[in-house]
Amino acid sequence: MKVLVCYKWVLDEADIFVNEQDLSLNFDKAKGKINEYDRNAIELGASLKETVGCELYAATVGKGVKASVNDVLSRGPEKVFYMDSPGLDSLDSSVTARLLAAMIKKIGGIDLVICGEGSSDFYSRQVGPRIAALLGYASLSYAVDVQVNGSEIIVTRKLDDGTEVVKVSSPAVISVLPEINKPRIPSLKQILAAKKKPSTSLALEEIGLTEADLATSLTFGDVAAAIMERKRIRIDEGCQDISEAVAKLIKQLRADRVLN
C-alpha cells in the first residue's frame, strides 16, 4: 500500500506580534513550522509504515515550503513532493486541494491519503474532502482510529453523540482529529538520516496545471487582533476587611450571572 500525507507549512503563532496602535498582526519575525494538526497525520502514516509496511510519502504546496522538507522526512516519510513558489502564498482550500490532487495523480498509485483536521492559520477543514472529490476517492473525516487490513481500511469516527466505525476499500482520503495519537519528537539519528532522503520539487506544468488553475474567488481581507473588553472593577475599594470584599465579589459575580 502506498500512503501519502498532505501537510501545510504555517507561520509559528508564537512569533506573531500585535501592533498596539492598530491591532494589526506583525509577521516579520515569524518562522515556519509544520501545521500542528498535520503532525498527527504524519504520525499516523509513520505508525502504518511500522505496522503494515506501507510506502509513506508526503506532499505540500505553498511559499517557502522547501524549508519544511528535512523536518517532515525526519518524522517517517520516505520522500517529500513539494511545490514552492512566491505565487503560492495565501492559497485558499479550493486551490490547495486542486494542486495536491494533481500532485497525487502525478505520483500515481496512492492508495490512502491522510490529512490533518485543519490548519492553524485558516482552519477551513475543507482540503481533505475536496481532494477526495477531485480524485473520486472515498472521504472519511473526524477519524480517531485507523486500521488497515490489505485493501480494507477501518476508520473510527468521532461524532457529536458517539462514535462510528466505517469500513472502506482503498483508495480513500482520511482527515484525522488530534486525539488520534501523540506525534513523536524526531531523534537526532532521524534528523540526520532525513538529510539523505530524497525530495522532489514539482512545477505547475509537470502536474498538468496552468496559472489559470490558481485563480480563486476568495479574497483575504485585513487580519486584526481581537479586543478583550474588561470591566476593571476593583472589589477591594471601600472595604474594611476581607469578609466585606468577598461579599462584594459574590454580589458582583451574581450580577454578572457567573454565580446563581
Automatic annotation (TrEMBL):
Signal peptide: none
Highest taxon of source: Bacteria
CDD domains given in the database record: ETF_beta
UniProt GO MF annotations: electron transfer activity
Cofactor list: AMP
Domain called Electron transfer flavoprotein alpha/beta-subunit N-terminal: residue spans: 22-211
SUPFAM superfamilies listed in its UniProt record: Adenine nucleotide alpha hydrolases-like (SSF52402)
Family: Belongs to the ETF beta-subunit/FixA family.
Protein name: Electron transfer flavoprotein small subunit
